[in-house]
Amino acid sequence: MTSTTTSKKRKRDVVVHQGNRDTEIETSKPTAVFTPGKPRQHTLSVALPGSVIANALTHEHKTAVAGQIGRALAVFCVDEVIIFDDGQNHKFKGGQDYRNDERVNENEHTGWSDPDHFLCHLLSYLEMPPYLRKTLFPVHPNLRTAGTLPSTDMPHHLRTNEWCQYREGVTIAGVVSHPNGADEETPNPKRARKGMDSKSTSSQGPSESTLVDIGSPQKLTIPVSIPPKTRITLKLPPAADSSGTAKAQNPRHMAEPVHPSAPREEAGYYWGYNVRRSASLSAVFTECPFDGGYDLSIGTSERGRPLSQLLQNSQTSSAQQGGSSQGGPSEKFPTRWKHLLAVFGGPSGIEAAVSVDSELAAAGVKEAKDVFDAWVNVCPGQGSRTIRTEEAVWIGLMSLRDFVRQRDDA
After folding, report:
1. Please, where are the H alpha helices in 167-217?
2. 20 versus 326: which is more confidently predicted?
């Protein structure tokens, strides 16, 4: 009885103490809201194999692994994630190697038949703003337990009453209201396929516009014609007041479609990650979407050099520009990189992916460390025999956090 009374008194004391502060802190709600910094041209990419899903024995476990990875990508502001085939999916219990088999049906559950697709599917779902998922992600066996996935809550996952100069939306078929009171119906591909008379649309005038659902009660209008169910990034007009809700939701105020990277490059926002799938480790590099490719690539392995040493060498070399270096490019990291890629191996390590990659073999690559600018160990002296890939992603990105933030501030 005494301990219960003491506990209650302590709780009341905490509340009273908070209430006496000049600024009351509401600890029941998150306060770490993302604040955009400088416009950012550089990017952070992560690559990992789908065999991390093949190694999970149940659908629930596969979903949980994808959720852990998605959370890490969001927390550490990763701009791109690449899921590559390391040729090991068939080696795990229940895994099947269907890469060249037409039996793979992406409309069915792919957790066992195509783990790479399963992971891409769930990571794409987690990146999507919740108000767009119902439209862009139809019911699918892969998502049957999607309700158990953790929320990523990224800056572009805006609530209905929140305003931002950028917003994600999806085009919809409907009637656009013009300022003169006239209504115009947006194109509907299904009706067009049924033989809708093209003259009936041309007689309405040259005006082309599209309705966009941005998760608010009213829809926005953009001055271009885009097919329905297309995801787009919009730049909204300036807000009329501090909240901006009234003006941002007025269909008569036209929004501007922009490139998905515009929030990052123009205003410094973190705007989610792009999901890419590669057929091999070498394809991760050869299919890079950035001009000039990745100028800093890091491979992770328990047989690599401690990451902390390389980061320390980089800080020392930047402070002492005239100092000499005993090693080659892998002894330190450049401080002015533009596109950083961190690659994590599956249960069999990156070495397994290199051993089955014909392109790397043709290029004369024999050791996995030769593929990367740096070959690092993100957790030296580990207490467990193994570190799972989903754990290594968290550890590696946390270790690189200060290095990446220094580039953000440069």
Report:
1. 189-193, 198-202
2. 20
